[in-house]
Design a protein that fits this description.
single chain; mainly alpha; 4 helices; 68% helix
């Protein structure tokens, strides 16, 4: 299975925007806009319109960036889950029931977590007794 590049215009745009806005240059541009806005305060007598310009601009940018960031985070999260699923799949002795674990409902996920918490508790007790905490215990 060979991964392919995304053909979605939105995905390409979101990736490019995330790359560009995460750079120091983008931060410096944002700081520059704020400085210019502050400098123009006395020119516009710190009026309502002067304040409205920065409020509107930052609100619009923030609103749009939320969607771009969420898109990027969703893709990264899905890719990470697939990679973890592949590691579980190829590990001998691993529990294949853990594949696609993020799709379980809250109760099922709590049960799995409870089993692993008990396993961790037992391993810490074993360490306190100076016995090995390694191995593949049944859960």
């Amino acid at each position: 299975m060979k991964p392919t590049k995304s053909t979605s215009c939105f995905t390409r745009f979101a990736k490019a925007t995330a790359r560009k806005t995460g750079q120091p240059t983008a931060f410096m541009m944002a700081v520059s806009v704020i400085i210019i806005w502050l400098i123009t305060g006395p020119i516009f007598k710190f009026g309502d319109t002067w304040q409205l310009v920065i409020n509107t601009g930052t609100t619009i940018v923030t609103f749009l960036m939320v969607f771009l960031i969420q898109n990027t985070q969703n893709r990264d999260s899905m890719a990470l889950q697939v990679k973890l699923d592949e590691l579980i799949r190829v590990m001998e002795g691993a529990h294949n029931a853990l594949l696609d674990l993020e799709e379980l409902d809250e109760k099922e996920l709590d049960l799995v977590r409870f089993n692993y918490e008990n396993l961790a508790k037992q391993a810490r007790e074993d360490l306190r007794k100076n016995t090995s905490d390694t191995g593949v215990p049944k859960i």
